[in-house]
Amino acid sequence: MLDVLILGAGVTGCSIARELSRYDLNVLVVDKHSDVCEGTSKANSGIVHAGYDAKPGTLKAKLNVEGNSLIKELSEELDFPFRENGSLVLCFDEKDRDVINKLYDQGVTNGVKGLQIIEKDRIKELEPNVTDDAVCALYAPSAGVVCPFLLTIAMAENASVNGVNFSLKTECDLIEKTESGYRVRTNKGTFETKTVVNAAGVSSDVFHNMVSDKKIKIIPRKGEYLLMDRTVGGTVSHTIFQLPTKLGKGVLVTQTVHGNLLVGPNANDIEDGEEVSTTADGLSEVAAKAALSIPGLPGRQTITSFAGVRAHEENGDFILGECEDAPGFYDAAGIESPGLTCAPAIGVMLACMIADKLNADLKNDFINTRKGIPNPKEMTREEYEALIKENPLYANVICRCETITEGEIVDSIRRPLGASTLDGVKRRTRAGMGRCQAGFCSPKVAEILAREMGTDIGDIRKNDPGSEILKGYIKEDL
Q1: What gap in Å lies between CA 81 and CA 229, rounded to an integer?
Q2: What does each C-alpha distance from 261 to 54, 66, 157, 190, 258 come to in angstroms?
Q3: pLDDT at residue 421 above 60?
């Protein structure tokens, strides 16, 4: 029997798994997708929020400030990119200054450090391209940007190294209470477990409502984004917000941790939590709203657009902890913004609850560090030459837009929970994330995947089953 079964391998589920791997427990993470980080965690702003938005006393407020601090520590322990670039919330009208003051007061109450209300001259000093219409702004120097893929993957790899098992392409359709815990039925068999952690994103209400009479409702909220080339990433150096609305923090403009310019999202409630298409109208709305902050945005430098779906709980706060009428069933539901920032703190909170419940002992051999894939772009010439001498594959550039080598791609496949799809390689290495958006490097990446996995290239997929990139051969060998 399992001690813990975690539903969902997004940033929340992987954070909980990583924290539980500190204990002497038998933990399994299941996810219906082919890789970790395939849901909400793959399509968001990558912002590490400072913590002034949430109403004081809420879980969002408490965990945001805690998570902000933890991510800085984690980036060093687990070797993923993070940058503390600071954020500005722009006020365009003097009559709204009281809203900025309220955000400031909330932030101070929540424990956010370094908050300032700054005036037009200081705004222009920090961000010369910001609109002249900004009369004041809330400046939060503790805000940052992170790579959401690599954060999630790093925690998953570290959990795996510390003994957590992962079962991907595993879809759950029934959870039943038993005398000793829960029975979880999936397409890969039935699992018996003492406890369940519900970190299933937009599907978390479905699983909660299977075991509890106190029903919850998750509203899928779609947001569309524009991603621009690194050549215009310097348009801003901070994350630029507008005053928030009831639908969220609004359209932002930010330089990503990798140097691109990111614009978005809008916010539209939808029925289908898997619907992530973009629309011309939606992207036009994003561009128009972003231009209120940064006039003359270089939209012609857009290299791709995408959409993500947030798990909005109808009462507005996270649902965390043991279900009142379902002992041993732990919710991590309604995890929307600032959920990425909060994830490390959620992991600590839930892991402590479950470890106490199961009277689990801490391991003596827990490994708290992880080393990422070597990045030649961050090396000195001497370091790079030494790497090539050790592994000549690092001299063979596969993705020219991002200068990604065969060595990096092979490493991404051979690692714990290694990539098995084109998207898996892309998120671990950035092969295919440049200007051509994988137009040139995909065939070679597919060849490397097939070679390393010992499979036919026709079996290589973009992501989940059904996304095979080759449908047949023009002619067969004679």
Answers
A1: 18
A2: 26, 27, 28, 45, 9
A3: yes
Convert 193-202 to b/e letters by CB count within 10 Å (16 or more is b): bbbbbbbbbb
476 pLDDT above the threshold of 80: no
φ, ψ for residue 313 (rounded to 5)?
-90, 135
**Which range (129-143, 248-262, 405-419) has the least confidence?**
248-262
**Cα–Cα dist 44/316, whole Å:** 18
Residue 49 appears among annotated catalytic residues:
yes
Nearest to 250 by CA among 240, 236, 260, 259: 240
**Domain covering 1-84+144-217+314-372, topology:** FAD/NAD(P)-binding domain (3.50.50)
Q: Quick one: which of 177, 186, 174, 179 has its CA closest to 29?
A: 186
pLDDT at residue number 299 = 93
Q: How far is CA 321 from the centre of its chain?
A: 21
Q: Strands (DSSP E) along 212-301, which ranges?
A: 218-228, 239-242, 252-255, 261-264, 268-269
The CATH fold assigned to 376-459 is Arc Repressor Mutant, subunit A (1.10.10)
DSSP line for 370-429 = ------GGGS-HHHHHHHHHH-GGGG-EEETTTTEEHHHHHHHHHSTT---SHHHHHHHH
**Which listed residue (49, 208, 238, 312) is catalytic?**
49
Q: 225 — alpha (psi -120 to 50), left (phi > 0) or beta?
A: beta
Domains 1-84+144-217+314-372 and 85-143+219-313 share a fold: no
What pLDDT, on a 0 to 100 scale, did the predictor assign at position 250?
75
Q: What is the pLDDT of residues 46-87, one digit of tens each?
A: 999 999 999 999 999 999 999 999 999 999 999 999 999 999
Q: What is the CATH number of domain 85-143+219-313?
A: 3.30.9.10
Q: What is the pTM of this model?
A: 0.96
Count the Cβ atoms, other than its own, within 10 Å of residue 393.
17
End-to-end distance of the chain based on CA atoms, in angstroms?
A: 53
- Short-list 82, 153, 67, CA closest to 372: 153
Percent of the chain residues topping a pLDDT of 90: 95
- Sketch the domain layout of the chain as residue ranges: 1-84+144-217+314-372, 85-143+219-313, 376-459
Q: How far apart are CA 143 and CA 49, in angstroms?
A: 5
pLDDT of residue 425: 98
Which range (306-310, 413-417, 470-474) has the least confidence? 470-474
Q: How far apart are CA 234 and CA 21, in angstroms?
A: 40
Q: What is the pLDDT of residue 246?
A: 58
